[in-house]
Design goal:
heterodimer; A: about 325 residues; alpha/beta; Rossmann fold; 2 domains; six-stranded mixed β-sheet; four-stranded parallel β-sheet; globular; B: about 80 residues; alpha+beta; Translation Initiation Factor IF3; four-stranded mixed β-sheet; 4 strands
């Protein structure tokens, strides 16, 4: 048994990280001793570009980078005494909700998710499988004075209704615990995994917890590290990413930490997603395609570390539309 | 007076845009010409519900009440 193991009990063997045996799935959540992998991508990057490494966040137990966020958000609610008998409500494009739903199920807490337009069916079904209630919400839900981010407005109104007694809202867009998750875990992992040599960090604009938390940590270690944000175009089809031309800027974003913003169209993002599948063997979601497309075009200081927020299996219905009859028998 | 309507939805205590959302779901499940009585207590509903009816193509048959409590009657449009 290692120092991190727990004693065997009458009902189990006890956890032992050395042999990767765990008594509870939550023990798989990442930390400095259990980081998500950092993997080099070579074939989709021009030879002249600095080396690019991807942090494979889809190897987290609930399938995305949002596992970190969800765990910190719930711990924050618990510390503030807001979990006492309340249900949870959260606006999410899917990944935070999936992690919250799994953690809520483990804690015996109900979760309602307000989900914006365009979230693939697969994610909505996974959420319902986890016991969550899913409320599809159009972005233009509010007909009068708040024409965007309907899912956020709806979740906030649920949390405030009934005197605020029924629901607690983790609020990943405004809760500093979202930033802290990445400042305390993702950032230190990248620093350690690159031996302190990371030159550029690339992540998408979404809730902005990842980019703010990681950038803050990395720039504290070395202020010359360049931080690049990836932003989709208005009307995009890249779940998890946000265009601030059409969505509100999250309260937790610290724009002073961002050195450059690269705007990516859907077409190149999906082309890069396909290349990552076919040339790198990486079954990633479309936001990774956008991030890698931006990262592969950067010059300057390497190594470059990009985030791969989630895997591709939750987007099969999107990919089916792209493929048409490609890959089917030819006559 | 509830019996006069195909459905009554009580959104007392719910803040906007919750009544808009719930009314939209209710109307979506109704047939053309059916009527929904909607009870709200958020004064924002006085603007939101008529705007929603226009946006959806439903008819707002009546709106009564004050800032504390509002009652709307909507008839589902033919094309929705």
């Amino acid at each position: 048994m290692t120092a991190t193991s727990t004693a065997p009990s009458a009902t189990g063997l006890g956890s032992d990280r050395a042999v990767r045996r765990f008594e509870d799935v939550r023990e798989l959540l990442p930390d400095a001793e259990n980081p998500t992998p950092l993997v080099r991508v070579r074939r989709v990057v021009p030879p002249s570009a600095p080396p690019l490494y991807l942090k494979l966040e889809w190897l987290n137990p609930f399938g995305s980078i949002k596992d970190r966020t969800a765990a910190y958000l719930l711990a924050d609610l618990e510390e503030r005494g807001l979990l006492d008998g309340r249900e949870l409500v959260e606006p999410s494009s899917g990944n935070t909700a999936i992690a919250l739903a799994a953690l809520a199920a483990l804690a015996g807490t109900r979760l309602t998710v307000t989900i914006p337009d365009g979230v693939p069916e697969e994610k909505q079904i996974l959420l319902r499988m986890l016991g969550a209630e899913v409320w599809p919400t159009p972005d233009d839900l509010c007909p009068v004075d708040n024409p965007k981010d309907g899912a956020i407005a709806l979740a906030r109104s649920l949390a405030a209704s009934e005197g605020g007694r029924r629901y607690a809202m983790p609020d990943q867009y405004a809760n500093p615990a979202n930033v802290r998750a990445h400042y305390e875990t993702t950032g230190p992992e990248i620093w350690r995994q690159t031996g302190g040599e990371v030159g550029t960090f690339v992540a998408g604009y979404g809730t902005c917890g990842t980019i703010t938390g990681v950038a803050r940590f990395l720039k504290e270690q070395d202020p010359s590290i360049r931080v690049v944000a990836v932003e989709p175009q208005p009307g995009h089809r890249l779940p998890g990413l946000k265009s601030f031309a059409e969505a509100s800027v999250p309260e937790i974003l610290d724009e002073g930490l961002i050195d450059d913003v690269v705007r990516v169209d859907d077409g190149p993002a999906y082309e890069m997603t396909t290349r990552l599948f076919r040339e790198e063997g990486l079954m990633v979601g479309p936001s990774t395609g956008a991030i890698v497309h931006a990262a592969a075009g950067l010059d300057g200081r390497g190594p470059v570390v990009g985030v791969s927020p989630d895997g591709g299996t939750k987007y099969a219905s999107y990919f089916a539309g792209l493929l048409g009859d490609e890959g089917l028998p030819t006559l | 007076m509830t019996d006069e309507h195909s459905m009554t939805l009580d959104c007392s205590g719910l803040l906007c845009p919750l009544p808009v959302y719930k009314a939209g779901i209710a109307l979506g499940r109704m047939g053309p010409g059916e009527t929904l009585e909607l009870i709200c207590t958020d004064p924002g509903s006085l603007e939101d519900i008529p705007a929603m009816a226009r946006q959806r193509g439903d008819d707002l048959l009546s709106a009564s009440g004050d800032a504390a409590r509002q009652v709307f009657v909507l008839r589902k449009g033919g094309g929705a």
